[in-house]
Amino acid sequence: MIKTLSNGVSGMRAQQFKMDIIGNNIANVQTVGYKRSKANFSEVVRQAIGDQGIPAADNPRPAEGSGVQVISVHRVLNQGDLLETNRPLDLSIDGVGYFKVISSDDREYYTRDGSFNINNEGEIVTSGGYRLETDFILEEGIRSFSVDPKGVVRVIESDGTEQEVGIIELYTFPAPAALLSEGNNLFSENEFSGEAVSSEAGEEGVGFIRQGFLENSNVDLTQEMVSMIEAQRAYSLNARTIQTADQMWSQANNLRK
Length: 257
What we know:
With 257 residues, the chain is of the alpha+beta class.
C-alpha cells in the first residue's frame, strides 16, 4: 500500500506539472512568435517484488513500477500562421531562423517576435527596447523603407530616390529546441543549443523575411483543451488510487482478532 501511495503521488505531481505547461501555452495563444511546450514523461525504475521460492508461474518475481516523472519539457517549433498587418515595421520569419536583438548592456538574445519599432536614435527595436542587430540606422527624412524576403533593406529618401542601406541577417542553431528561455519571448544560446550561426535569409534552409506580417503562436487551443482534460482525468485517477490505498490501510489497521 505504501508503494501504491508513492505511485499515486508521483502521478499527481507529473500531471500537475503538465497542467502548468498547458496553462502557460493557453496564456500565450496570442503571443507573437510563441512556440508551445510539451512535457515528456518516463516511468521510474521498475522493481521486482516477492521472495524467491518455488515458482508458481514463469515469472515468480513480478515487476512493479515506482511511478512516473517528468524528464523534459520539449519546445515544439512548428511554424505559426502568418498574419498580415501591412505595418512596415512588422517582420516575420517564414521558415527556420531567429532575429538577433541586443540589450542595453550588450547581451545577445534571439527571438521570432518581429513586432518592431524605431527609437529616437533611428534604431529598430523590440517592444521591450532591445535593438535589432543591423549595420544601419533609419535617419530622419526617410519617406519609407522596405525589407525584401532576403532581408535587404532599402529606403526612399525625401527626394524620392531609393537606396540600399543594409541587410537583416537571421540566425540558426544546431538544436534550437534547447535554447534557454529568458522571458519576454527572448532566448539565449547555451551548450545544449550550440552556437548561433548567422545566415542570409532564404539561403541554406533558412527562412525568408516577410514584411508586413507577424507570426502567430503555434498553440492549437483545441489541442490544449483536450490535453488539459486528459491531465485532469489522470490527476483524478491518481488521487482515487491514493484514496483507495488509504482506505485499505485504515481497514487493515482496524482489524481485530
